[in-house]
Write a structure and sequence with these properties.
Elements (H helix, E strand, L loop, with lengths): L2 H23 L3 E9 L2 E9 L2 E9 L3 H6 L3 H15 L9 E9 L6 E7 L10
Parallel strand pairs: 3-4
Antiparallel strand pairs: 1-2, 2-3, 4-5
């Protein structure tokens, strides 16, 4: 692994830790972190009230870069991974699903975008 890749990995881990702390402070209960599925990894899985929330964390130099870094293919992959993760957990099937985004930018508080995208609804894609 190159030095640049190791640094990017360390930034990503830091951003995920910061996002977890931010969400827990807001009342979310963390269910999983770096959840691995056959479709790929989900950064964070949390519950708040009647919502099961799948959260992608993006750390970039600017918020615009963070938003640009999650395209339609990545959103579709996360949606597939969420279905796989949820399938064996029947106790969570009654919850509403939501896909959130946490943007982490140096020198700023994390920005939590609830319902950042709605699967299958291109009109509401990445709000």
């Amino acid at each position: 692994m190159t030095r640049a890749r190791r640094q990017a990995e360390a930034r990503g881990r830091w951003a995920e830790w910061l996002a977890m702390a931010w969400l827990v402070a807001k009342g979310y209960r963390l269910l999983d972190h770096r959840a691995r599925t056959a479709a790929g990894e989900i950064d964070l899985v949390a519950r708040r009230g009647e919502y099961l929330v799948f959260i992608e964390v993006k750390a970039r130099a600017t918020r615009a870069e963070a938003l640009d870094s999650i395209g339609p293919r990545q959103r579709a992959r996360i949606t597939r991974a969420a279905s796989i993760w949820r399938a064996p957990r029947s106790s969570l099937h009654h919850l509403h699903l939501r896909y959130d985004l946490v943007l982490v930018v140096p020198g700023r508080w994390p920005q939590h975008r609830r319902a950042a995208w709605v699967p299958g609804d291109s009109a509401r894609d990445l709000l």
